[in-house]
Predict the structure.
Amino acid sequence: MARPLPRVLALTLGEPAGIGPDIAIDVWRRRAELSLPPFYIVGDSAFLARRAERLGVPVPMRSVAPGEAAGVFATALPVVELGLAIAAEPGRPDASSAPAAIAAIRRAVADVIAGEAAAVVTNPVAKNVLYRSGFAEPGHTEFLARLAAEATGVAAQPVMMLWSPELAVVPVTIHLPLAEVPGRLDGELIVSTGRIVDRDLRERFGIARPRLAVAGLNPHAGEDGALGQEDIAIVKPAVDRLIAEGIAARGPIPADTMFHAEARASYDAALAMYHDQALIPIKTLAFDHAVNVTLGLPFVRTSPDHGTAFDIAGSGRADPSSLIAAIRLAARLAASAPASAAVRAMAGAKAP
């Protein structure tokens, strides 16, 4: 017999020396006024207590198992203990930073796959700190895909979508130097990304027939080949394939005309060809409240769309708006499509 769906979200600590702990504490303190769903933070309660004291906001905390978190959320910040002592001071990552950040992600994903939590909400990490520790993945997105594949035995293509009420945008290539983008961009990648965006917008966001606008790679979408052949040779055939599959896609569209208000009203998500082509418009329009959503995974994962902000960590000046939006969106998406069949089967198999 399947277990009832969990109501609680698993929130990771992120980089301990960054603002993740600050905004998690702030959001819990404002839980009633914001009408937030219950969550627990995967971390170290002693470390979090020190950070709360530094911020001047003593917070009651309770070490819990995931299944106990919803019951204590109203009176104490639930903490699922990592079993790692964290010593990092605000703005000063140390040897405890990367192991804690990585372990928190692993535990949150494991809890969702086990049916103990409804979704993963990740606080920001510092990639350079992770890389120095030997972390092999380019970023959060790729690491989450590996964890999903290890747990379910099914390979996943992770797709990063930046979402806000004003704009949803997907970079087809993500963490690449700009000089490498043309050589790494191919039609199959565009098509597979478009399929995942279309599917998740339907299944998780409840959009019956998502409209996808696909940006050209070159200025003016190549100007009929005068400014590069990629849009003719790669992007246009990929868009045609998506259309042939019944997906409401159009393009390639010149990126400089895609993001004004009238243009945005004509589509549900924009597919951009590289990182900054996607992130510049959404950070201009929704810097404080955009959410990073990973599509293509067998579980829901959201994250604030900002970094660790070492310069203001521990000061009490961090804006929690993006984390608030990430928590709300995670709860919404998990309620509409709680998990893939693979995750539901695994959780059911582990049920008593």
In short: The two ends are 9 Å apart (CA to CA). DSSP finds 14 helices and twelve strands in the chain.
